[in-house]
Design brief:
With about 180 residues, this protein is α+β, with helices and mostly antiparallel strands. Strands 1-2-4-3 form a four-stranded antiparallel beta sheet. α1 crosses α4, α2 crosses α3 and α3 crosses α4. The radius of gyration is 16 Å and the shape is globular.
Length: about 180
């Protein structure tokens, strides 16, 4: 995973919790990088998982809650960092509908070694059906990213989890009327 994911995570922990919490979860998780990340380098997704587990334990939250919180937090910085790679999006559903065909396509050009998740999207009436598949099992993070996307576009979204198994998920997303 790109270091930007890690630097943003540690920034979220410092902002939402404290600088001491950052130090504590790095120490608790015993990650190989010792929490030293650069935005442009790659790191094992296991480190993010381990940091989230440590934060969940220290904050008395579930891993699911931490991953959603982080997904919601990181959407805007990621969108702003990478928006020059794709055509501007007008709304949340347009962005989500084109995330794999447009954004992931460009990311694969820049980072051919990247192991991006597979996200299939289809419209059914005014509902977007998103299927997330990845061996990294970050479906809760994706859920948070969907929430963050709605927040970014100032469009409250109704998100229903249709299927959730082994870190894979299918979501039904629509703009709240």
């Amino acid at each position: 995973m790109r270091g930007l994911i890690f630097t943003q995570f540690l920034e979220m922990v410092e902002t939402h919790y404290s600088a001491d919490m950052v130090d504590d979860i790095i120490e608790d998780s015993k990650i190989p990088s010792a929490g030293i990340y650069t935005a442009v380098s790659d790191y094992s997704h296991q480190e993010l998982h381990d940091l989230c587990v440590a934060l969940a334990a220290r904050s008395n939250q579930t891993l699911s809650e931490i991953l959603k919180e982080y997904g919601e937090y990181v959407f805007a910085p990621l969108y702003q960092t990478y928006q020059k790679l794709f055509q501007p999006k007008n709304n949340a559903l347009q962005f989500l509908l084109e995330v794999d065909s447009d954004i992931h396509k460009e990311m694969r050009k820049l980072y051919p070694e990247a192991k991006l998740p597979n996200i299939e999207c289809t419209m059914q009436g005014n509902h977007l059906i998103m299927r997330y598949q990845s061996d990294r099992h970050f479906a809760d993070l994706v859920h948070g990213l969907i929430i963050g996307c709605g927040n970014y576009f100032n469009e409250p979204l109704d998100i229903e989890v249709l299927d959730f198994s082994e870190g894979q998920a299918t979501y039904k997303v629509c703009v709240r009327a």
